[in-house]
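Board notes (copied after class):
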Amino acid sequence: MAVSDNNNANTSRNFDAEGNPLFPSVYEFEYIKFIKQGKEVDAAKKRLVTSLEIVEELYSPIVKAKIIIRDNENFFEEFGLNGQEVVKVGILRKALSKEQDDRVIELDLVVENYSLFEKTTESITVQEYHLNLISPIAFLSRLQQISQSVKGSPVDGIKDIFEKYLPIAKERVLAPGDSPGDFCQVNNLKTVITKRTPLQAIEWLRSCCYDSIGSPFFVFPSFASGNMHIKSWGSITNEAINPVYPKPYVFKPFKETVSDAAAGPGHLEELASKIISLRSDLSLNKLQNTLDGGGPASVTEIVDFNDRSYTDQLDTLKPEYKKVYNQDDPILDPISFNYLEKIEGVKGVDRLDNMFETAKKEVFYLPVSPYVDGYKASPEIKLAAKEEKNHYESTIGSITHDITIYGEDQLIPGVRIKIKVPKAVDTSQQEPGVDESLSGTYIVLVAVHTFKDGIYFTRAKITKDSQYNPKFNTEKR
């Protein structure tokens, strides 16, 4: 077992007399180095850092963090903190027993700003400040603007931009694997990216990529491994491609005393599966979910310059109610065109005052195609995946939980986990059993890793995977 020589005062209370951890997620700060213009200082060895919070989410490739420093030796002035520091973090995860090995998690960050500086008359010799930090790629991206052509798969374009401009080597960008459902089906994109930062270009290419069932892709990090992931929602929800995390999490009382914990790693492993707190957002407003995803009052306008045609589509209408207009048709005035008056056969729609003023509206301009060999422009690709995309947007997050567990750095966005939540019953009369509506398989959307007082906790926002578009789960898999 690796032994740390870090004399961090935050951790001593979390070990027994023989040095065994009393909790399943005990840590020590190996180092938190502030580096600027050749100067370097380790705030962990000075015992200045009281907490570290790291945030990673499915919707962004950027890791964010917050460090709280309690300074009683004028570190702020002597080191000359000014918001231009690189911060290197090393966190020692303690093993559950002496027979197992400790391991160190390392990550690099850049100071974004100082959000709080506080000193009070009660502790005039002590000052506290909060540092907001971001991934180096976010900092580097802001310093660059790129213009370049992209031809072929958007995923290949994303990997090229990471390696060339940010830089993250291609082998650290984990793109879709060998399973057919995991591939980006768009391999014929042809476009030009102009005057965008690298991360803006990556986000635009991501929006052009869909898998075999039309679900969108995400680009997201893993802070513990340093890898970047490119995965479709279809592959994330597919058990064959993305198996459930081996450890189930249970929301129930556990024995949790120092003597029990000291009994050995068996108790700690059981404790590690405990859901410490749970808060749910059921979001069962189906009308709102449908509106958000492009249901009632959702309008799609398509202008196709190839055949000089214009199409308006109202998603709530049956196909026979949708009419295609040619630009030479004298009744069409795209500027003053009134859907409520011109669409016939729909009863009662005119009673919904100002419906279209707040409707979700998408416009696709299909260019005259100069391409050969089957290449397509981005509007054509996005239009083809529109229905599936809207289904995804209207269903993700219908049932979500915020759970807190003992720290698990492998619980990154995109991981599928199983949770068990007890029924609400009178436990004096019977065992509660499992609430099937709230239990089941969930997908991690956001993970917040908090290191404080020597114990590491993970707070995760999770969404029920079966809520995603059952139509496509059953018909297309």
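Comment from the instructor: The two ends are 46 Å apart (CA to CA). Residues 288-374 form one domain.
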